[in-house]
């Protein structure tokens, strides 16, 4: 291990942050994971008790990068503002007033900042138009980071699936999943690829700004649920005339992320879900 490397601070070190933290640790960094219950973190990460609503711990003086990846306790505007907008503001204030001078700050955001595109392709140059109040808070948080830190990084993730994130698989197995009859593209990324993208953007020479984190293959929800039914031996889901309310009607491009040299372990939902069903990608569980 290269002991000359400094510290990485992951604020909101939940499932995604833990996977990213393990990858940083393997690369030789000291990693601090800030969360309300640090005792849940694996031994490779130094757990720090932190609540974004209370006094913040001091960042280590050798902090090379900060990853801001908290999860709001509920889907309300109040919870999102407290967690993301005011939480990030307090972290940035702490950086400005403390000895740490991290060269990289990355915000994990969401593709929920985009609106409906009627099935068209969307990339980072597409104007954000959040359709929900919580999406508007996320966009405001992104704008805060890039205003305060023009060298900041924003990673907009689509639907994350993977170990412990098996909602769709569970629905297919229980017979509650539906196959929409109308075309409706969906976008997703495996948890391990999402974590790898965080590490890659921090460690690479990626230009500051915004990146979309999705796999190579936007897919119709009907194709995904029928694939899962086949893989699990469950009955084929019934067709539904209703329109899916999740994810927006758009196809998200990962070309900018790919252009930095990032490679996906699971470039499409077939390879990713097969790994989940086989029990792979469970390193910290």
Automatic annotation (TrEMBL):
Coiled coil spans: none
SUPFAM superfamilies the record matches: NAD(P)-binding Rossmann-fold domains (SSF51735)
Location of region: Disordered: 234-254
Domain of life: Bacteria
Domain NAD-dependent epimerase/dehydratase: 14-204
Designated name of the protein: NAD-dependent epimerase/dehydratase domain-containing protein
Organism listed in the record: Arthrobacter mangrovi
Organism taxonomic ancestry: Bacteria, Bacillati, Actinomycetota, Actinomycetes, Micrococcales
């Amino acid at each position: 291990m290269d002991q000359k490397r400094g510290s990485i601070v992951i604020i909101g070190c939940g499932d995604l942050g833990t996977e990213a933290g393990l990858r940083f640790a393997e690369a030789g960094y000291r990693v601090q994971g800030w969360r309300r219950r640090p005792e849940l973190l694996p031994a490779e990460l130094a757990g720090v008790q932190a609540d974004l609503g209370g006094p913040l711990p001091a960042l280590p003086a050798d902090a090379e990068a900060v990853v801001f990846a908290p999860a709001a306790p509920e889907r309300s505007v109040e919870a999102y503002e407290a967690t993301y907008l005011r939480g990030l503001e307090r972290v940035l204030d702490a950086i400005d007033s403390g000895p740490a001078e991290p060269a990289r700050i990355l915000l994990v955001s969401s593709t929920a900042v985009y609106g409906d595109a009627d099935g068209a392709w969307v990339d980072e140059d597409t104007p954000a138009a959040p359709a929900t109040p919580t999406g508007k808070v996320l966009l405001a948080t992104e704008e805060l980071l890039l205003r305060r830190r023009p060298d900041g990084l924003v990673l907009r993730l689509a639907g994350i699936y993977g170990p412990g994130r098996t909602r769709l698989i569970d629905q297919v197995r229980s017979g509650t999943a539906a196959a929409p009859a109308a075309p409706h593209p969906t976008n997703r990324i495996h948890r391990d690829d999402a974590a790898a993208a965080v590490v890659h953007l921090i460690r690479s020479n990626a230009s500051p700004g915004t990146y979309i984190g999705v796999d190579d293959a936007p897919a119709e929800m009907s194709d995904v649920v029928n694939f899962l039914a086949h893989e699990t031996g469950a009955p084929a889901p019934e067709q539904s005339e209703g329109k899916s309310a999740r994810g927006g009607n758009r196809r998200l491009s990962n070309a900018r992320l790919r252009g930095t040299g990032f490679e996906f372990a699971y470039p499409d939902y077939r390879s990713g879900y097969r790994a989940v069903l086989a029990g792979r990608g469970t390193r910290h569980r």
